[in-house]
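[Q] Does anyone have a clean structure-token version of this?
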Amino acid sequence: MTLDDLRVFVAVCRAGSLSAVARELTCTQSAVSQRVKRLERETGVSLLERQPRGVVPTAAGRILCEAAADGIAGLDLALRRLSDLVHGESGAVRITTGSTTVRHFMAGAIVSFRRRYPNVNLEFQTESSSRGCLDALIAGHLDLAWITLGAPVRGVEQRPVAELPWVLAMRAGDPLAARSHVEVSDLADVRLLRLPPNSTSGGRLHAALAELGIRAGSDTGVADWDTALLLAELGLGRAVVPALPGLPMPGSEGPLRLVPIPALPPLPVGWAARRWDALPPLARAFADTVVRALGEDASRERRSPERHSSERHSSERHSSERHSSERHSSERSYARPAE
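[A] Here you go.
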């Protein structure tokens, strides 16, 4: 039994296919099968059950898979930490995220991090859901996952970073666009663009609406928040989405309008790691950089409405004074006797 045997076995259990793992490792299916058979000979039990469309671990296989995955993850972390000690401030930070994460949550942080650590590579692996991010993290080859926080997951530590309020996104000119906020009861008659049912954020939204007695209808499904926002801006529907960093502030002008839904509980997002105390220093530095950048962005956004309000009142005052001056000038002109 070798470490490579265990790595291959864990990969087969996760993929549910010998051929898929063979393609990933660029070897033959027979070579993958031989590694599994060697483990079965040494343990004395059957580890995989062959099915028409692949394989699944037996009860004994599940026990070995869980133990092997934990051990491999711990060993990989130790090797990474040793590598960081040897190479100093060079190396790589590996992050798994959803498709919209980098744009909305990490753009500024990436620039700041690269300025400070120019010799460090940032490697992003995109997954379609928070569950996919967690699975990739647990597999042992990644440092961090940015996720919508949910129920505890064995072998993973989650840390909240931000809570995103929900907003109703729609095109300017929509009857609801002029409101200061939307009541949850208003959503009962609204056909919404639907987030994927298997997504953590979509599940949280559905649960929150159901708890408030709302069963919103839907005609169109979308893969991510950005697609929902684009379709809403084009007037192809309305969408309940989190108020993502970088989006227009509620009340802002433009083709896309966002109206707060204060009755819905905010959506928690943040970092996940297998073990924070074993996180490589560079990965911890990147996580901290993202948290700090988001805090600075939130501070600027809190000041922004006050500045816009002040500018608007100033503009209105100057406009009023200008119109008043023009009116008096006109009155003086009309009062002037004809020559």
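[Q] Thanks! Anything notable?
[A] The CA atoms of residues 97 and 126 lie 5 Å apart.
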